[in-house]
Design brief:
heterodimer; A: alpha+beta; Alpha-Beta Plaits; 2 domains; 4-stranded mixed β-sheet; 3-stranded antiparallel β-sheet; 7 helices; 11 strands; about 30% helix; B: mainly alpha; 10 helices; about 0% strand; elongated
């Protein structure tokens, strides 16, 4: 009786040792990948592009003042011209929606041809409108981008400056990212058959210019700038306004900030 | 030794060979498919970023025009269109700035162009200058009266409805149709020239509406009366009645 108990305790010490060593060994297997990823992010911090821009020194965002938008659609037009987006409907990197909320609380949202030619109105509205406004939309440049998570080949990614980009030479056009985007901000380019979307005009902002839509907005309803620097038009915008983001419950952490966001805006 | 080798079931060595072949195949295929700079900084092709920034720039930005068109830039800077970028109306201009002799920009001289921004639209923010183009000096191009670079109206508007169209229209359908705007808003003439700098006043107290609507007010008999002391006592009147369309029912 005693004997067998003793044996058992001896046994269990050995087993404990075994498990200890096993855990230690297995964890040590992770060390190289840990070191590797730290090394990578160290390298990325020093990365300078061919035009002298270093991504890690910036962090971009956009502010949209809904109460200033006049729905002229100049941003939609300029975006298509700047970025070679096909002129026909369905292909937009940015577009403007019109919200009409009626007294019986029905809400109609539309965006005829993305508002590239502005909006037409019926002569007489069928029902009384209680409030109405325009909402410019674009890629929200999420901090947790669902589109990046689903890409099977790593053709869409978040750059060091927070901008979500598409590598059109590597994209296989499977369309998963288009399905995954909760904001409907992506489309399949009809010529290249690859995914495409707003890049904050990456070719402009890396050359010390502002995105084309911001350049042409006549009422300064769009504000572009650094999120993390102390002095930036965007920081001032976020200080002076009450800010909302689209679909906060999805935890995508958008970097497009809306001032005076109505609860009807989805 | 031999006996140990013999102890291994035959399928194990065979499967191991297969496994090794598969692993080698995987490594070969992967190294051919995945570009060499993939994963250098993150889970993407590092050279993609340089490809993206090499896209052609079309919009030059409003600063560069000043170099050659300082007259237009100067005129625009002081006017209503100071924040409307040149390229909104003239289109993308990088090609023009590089070779102004051969690349000419279009100028939107047609009348239908300006209403894109200025047509009266109920969804537009109040205070943005809007006209109804069917009735605003029809048939003439806008630029015969408004310089596109400094579009101040050729004469100061007499009526409030030139700029407050929506309110004027609303009021014209309301019980207050015969109460002039200036009865409730003291409006300096300068307001019509520089509306954002010189603003009109707005009624401040309940007693103001009481001047016509109080029980003992010396106003027309037909005007409906309320007891100022009890009617909606804790609020100013326009928290319940929109003054430009007062509704009692």
């Amino acid at each position: 009786m005693m004997e067998s108990l003793k044996d058992k305790s001896k046994n269990s010490v050995a087993r404990r040792n075994f498990i200890k060593k096993l855990t230690f060994f297995c964890t040590s297997l992770l060390i190289p990948s840990f070191v590797n990823s730290r090394e990578k992010s160290e390298k990325a911090k020093k990365w300078v592009l061919t035009n002298g821009y270093s991504p890690a020194e910036h962090y971009w965002g956009m502010g949209v003042a809904i109460n200033k938008c006049i729905g002229c659609g100049r941003c939609v037009d300029a975006c298509k011209r700047e970025n070679n987006v096909p002129r026909e409907p369905f292909f937009f990197k940015t577009w403007v929606e019109r919200y009409r909320i009626f007294k019986d609380s029905e809400t109609i949202v539309d965006s005829p041809n993305g508002a590239i030619n502005g909006f037409e109105y019926p002569r007489v509205e069928k029902k009384a409108i209680i409030r109405s406004f325009f909402v410019p939309k674009l890629c929200n440049q999420c901090n947790n981008p669902p589109c990046v998570q689903v890409c099977p080949v790593g053709a869409t990614f978040k750059a060091e400056d927070g901008v979500v980009l598409v590598d059109s030479n590597y994209c296989i056009g499977c369309g998963y990212c288009i399905q995954a985007c909760p904001y409907g901000a992506r489309y399949l380019h009809p010529v290249t058959q690859t995914a495409d979307k707003c890049t904050f005009c990456y070719h402009r902002i890396t050359n010390k210019m502002i995105p084309a839509c911001v350049e042409v907005c006549p009422t300064q309803a769009r504000i572009f700038g650094e999120i993390k620097k102390k002095a930036s038009p965007l920081v001032r915008f976020m200080r002076m306004n009450k800010i909302g983001i689209l679909k906060p419950s999805l935890n995508t952490e958008p970097k497009v900030y809306y001032a005076n966001l109505d609860m009807e805006v989805k | 030794m031999k006996s140990l080798w013999g102890k291994i079931p035959e399928q194990i060595p065979r499967l191991s060979v297969l496994l090794v072949i598969l692993v080698v195949l995987f490594i070969v295929v992967r190294s051919r498919l995945v570009p060499p700079d993939f994963g250098k900084y993150g889970h993407y092709r590092a050279s993609a970023v340089d490809e993206i920034i090499s896209q052609e720039i079309r919009y030059a930005g409003h600063e560069v025009c000043a170099e050659c068109h300082d007259d237009v830039v100067g005129a625009k800077k002081a006017g209503y269109h100071k924040n409307v970028a040149c390229e909104v109306c003239h289109g993308p201009a990088v090609a023009h700035t590089e070779d102004p002799g051969s690349v000419e920009l279009r100028a939107p001289r047609a009348r239908r162009y300006c209403p894109l921004c200025h047509e009266y639209r109920p969804s537009r923010p109040t205070g943005f200058p809007q006209i109804v183009s069917n009735s605003h000096n029809p048939m003439k191009p806008c630029i015969t009266c408004h310089d596109p670079h400094d579009p101040k109206p050729p004469v100061t508007p007499k009526e409030c409805h030139a700029c407050h169209g929506a309110i004027a229209r609303t009021k014209s359908l309301s019980h207050h149709v015969y109460v002039p705007c200036t009865r409730c808003h003291e409006t300096p003439d300068e307001h019509k020239v520089r509306p954002r700098i010189v603003v009109a006043s707005k009624p401040k107290t309940r007693e103001f509406c009481g001047e016509c609507h109080a029980k003992d007010a010396p106003s027309e008999k037909s005007i409906p009366r309320v007891d100022l002391a009890t009617h909606g006592e804790r609020y100013v009147c326009w928290q319940c009645h929109y003054p430009h369309l007062p509704e009692a029912r």
